[in-house]
């Protein structure tokens, strides 16, 4: 047995991550209830159509706030450096678990950074368009006509991204989920998946 | 036998602006009239409201130095291809009856307001108190019982006629021909071909300029609404499915990432 000796995510990071994740799931499933009349039955799970209409925007708003907190915390660490660009160009190798030729990664790899930017951008546009759809009697018609298209597009992009994110963090890279729940990883995990970061935090 | 499509014809050249239809609509639908905005016109109020579904617009018009009003009845058009229905996410909140009437069923409405954005004629109104949308039902309840809509029943000038759509299209053409004979060269019928035809039709003296009556020139379901409710659904559904299948195949082919030196203690 190895000990999880390195702190990967602080308590505050884990709280903001899971707050935004739960709000996201709530917003995503209540949103999907309105995505098509064929999915309207989903609204029953969340208290009925009127409840969904009333609460989805609040779920979305809290999601955006929690993401905003994460954004502020991580934006500095999410800037792409040269290694990340090489990493991204070779990401097909990463997907096949081929390690030769892949640059070592810091705390976050190029893919994770891209996920961060994708989710931040889509959350921003979800918020903008969501505010417009929230108040149809106030928002001008031209804005509503764009928003009803933009909101589900961004929702689809972010949900697609989250599906990948979910797969990576559960099945594809064992140990990641533990890092976000308990906050700690083993030295081996850190070395294998984020070599540069491992050297920084362990001093080896 | 399929139900005949019912329709309402508004011959704007015969409207005298008496507003009897407004009153009849309020009465039959048991609507309380709340004094709206007074902005120095003869028009009852500037716009439709959740409890005011039929408005005679007094459009001011100057022709050769002569002032006139282009009266136009403003209410739901009962489109053959209703943008409101296309946009609505709640099954049964908007129904299109076999006779062509488009009716809102408030019991099923969740108040999202999508229909307001989908409607090319800007008709549905969201009530801030009940959080439901309302609009003209073409007196669906009366029509179902074999009566004519309240506005039609009360109109003193034959400006409004109710009947089968086929009959009324003919009547509209006859009226147009008569107006042309009277010197209104631009007379014509307005029935929204862009939305598959509307079951509320107009005879206009200035048919090439419906905007003068406050009617949109070429009403169509907005393209963003069609894209949203059409191709976008399929593209996004395919993308979701693709992502899920892709993740599964990836796992089956490559499995999880391995962690090396797992026994090394830091
Ligand atoms: C950021 C703040 C957000 C606001 C203010 C917001 C607001 C809204 C509003 C007002 C609606 C119309 C119906 C309703 O009220 O329930 C809606 C629909 C929807 N929302 Fe959001 N939302 C937000 C975030 C999200 C998020 C994070 C997702 C999920 C990824 C999402 C997915 C959807 C979907 C799928 C729909 C239905 C779209 C359609 O009808 O095609 N929203 N949103
Ligand atoms: S006029 Fe508007 S509310 Fe009436 S049927 Fe057409 S789209 Fe629906
Ligand atoms: S407000 Fe009501 S009728 Fe209009 S689209 Fe939403 S659920 Fe349908």
Please tell me about this protein's structure.
The complex is a heterodimer of chains A (204) and B (266). Chain A has a single domain, classed as Up-down Bundle (Fumarate Reductase Cytochrome B subunit), CATH 1.20.950.20. Helices cover 72% and strands 2% of the residues of chain A. Chain A contains ten helices and two strands. In chain A, helix 1 (11-35) packs antiparallel against helix 3 (49-74) and helix 9 crosses helix 10. In chain A, 33% of the residues are buried. The mean pLDDT of chain A is 94. With 266 residues, chain B is an alpha+beta fold. Chain B has helices at residues 20-28, 83-87, 114-118, 140-144, 150-154, 165-181, 223-229, 231-254; strands spanning 6-11, 55-63, 66-74, 94-96, 102-104, 125-126, 133-134, 160-164, 188-190, 200-204. In chain B, the strands form four sheets. A four-stranded mixed sheet of chain B has the order 8-1-10-9, covered by helices on one side. The model of chain B has no long low-confidence stretch (mean pLDDT 93). At the A-B interface, helix 1, helix 3, helix 7 and helix 9 of A face helix 3, helix 7 and helix 8 of B. Bound molecules: protoporphyrin IX containing FE and iron/sulfur cluster (2 copies).
Proper CATH architecture of the largest domain in chain B? 2-Layer Sandwich
Secondary structure tally, helices of chain B: 8
Q: Specify the CATH class of the largest domain in chain B.
A: Alpha Beta
Task: State the CATH superfamily name of chain A.
Answer: Transmembrane di-heme cytochromes, Chain C
Please, what is the average pLDDT of chain B?
93
Based on secondary structure, the structural category of chain B is alpha+beta
Q: Major sheet of chain B: size, sense and barrel closure?
A: 4 strands, mixed
* Beta-strand content estimate of chain B: 15-25%
Number-wise, the strands of chain A total: 2
Order of strands in the sheet with most strands of chain A: 1-2
Bound small molecules, by name, code or SMILES, are:
protoporphyrin IX containing FE, iron/sulfur cluster
Stated plainly, the CATH topology of the largest domain in chain B is called: Alpha-Beta Plaits
């Amino acid at each position: 047995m190895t000990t999880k000796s390195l702190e990967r995510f602080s308590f505050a990071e884990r709280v903001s991550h899971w707050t935004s994740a739960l709000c996201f799931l709530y917003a995503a499933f209540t949103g999907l209830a309105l995505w098509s009349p064929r999915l309207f039955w989903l609204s029953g799970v969340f208290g009925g159509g009127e409840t969904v209409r009333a609460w989805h925007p609040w779920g979305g708003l809290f999601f955006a706030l929690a993401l905003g907190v994460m954004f502020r915390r991580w934006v500095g660490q999410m800037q792409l450096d040269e290694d990340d660009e090489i990493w991204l160009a070779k990401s097909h190798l990463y997907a096949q678990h081929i390690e030769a030729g892949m640059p070592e990664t810091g705390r976050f790899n190029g893919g994770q950074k891209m996920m961060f930017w994708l989710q931040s951008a889509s959350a921003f546009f979800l918020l903008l368009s969501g505010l417009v759809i929230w108040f149809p009697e106030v928002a001008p018609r031209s804005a509503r006509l764009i928003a009803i298209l933009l909101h589900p597009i961004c929702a689809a992009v972010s949900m697609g991204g989250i599906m990948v994110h979910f797969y990576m963090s559960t099945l594809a890279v064992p140990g990641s989920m533990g890092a976000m729940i308990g906050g700690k990883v083993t030295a081996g995990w850190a070395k294998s998946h984020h070599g540069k970061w491992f050297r920084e935090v362990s001093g080896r | 036998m399929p139900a005949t499509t019912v329709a309402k014809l508004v011959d704007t050249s015969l409207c005298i602006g008496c507003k009897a239809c407004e009153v009849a609509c309020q009465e039959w639908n048991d609507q309380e009239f709340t004094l709206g905005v007074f902005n120095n016109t003869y028009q009852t109020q500037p716009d439709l409201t959740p409890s005011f579904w039929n408005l005679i617009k007094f459009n001011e018009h100057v022709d050769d130095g002569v002032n006139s009003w282009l009266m136009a009845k403003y209410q739901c058009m009962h489109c053959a291809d209703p943008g409101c229905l296309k946009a609505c996410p709640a099954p049964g909140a908007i129904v299109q009856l076999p006779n062509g009437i488009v009716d809102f069923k408030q019991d099923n409405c969740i108040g999202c307001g999508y229909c307001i954005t989908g409607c090319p004629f800007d008709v549905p109104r969201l009530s801030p108190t009940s959080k439901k949308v309302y609009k003209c039902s073409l007196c669906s309840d009366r029509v179902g019982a074999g009566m004519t809509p309240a506005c039609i029943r009360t109109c003193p000038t034959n400006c409004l006629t109710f009947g089968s759509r086929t009959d009324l299209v003919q009547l509209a053409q006859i009226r147009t021909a008569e107006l042309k004979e009277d010197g209104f060269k631009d007379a014509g019928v307005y029935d929204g071909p862009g939305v598959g035809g509307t079951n509320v039709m107009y005879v206009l003296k200035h048919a090439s300029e419906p905007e003068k009556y406050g009617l949109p020139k070429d009403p169509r379901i907005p393209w963003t609404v069609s894209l949203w409710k059409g191709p976008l659904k399929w593209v996004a559904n395919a993308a979701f499915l693709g992502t899920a299948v892709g993740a599964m195949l990836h796992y089956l082919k490559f499995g999880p990432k391995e962690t090396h030196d797992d026994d090394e203690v830091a």
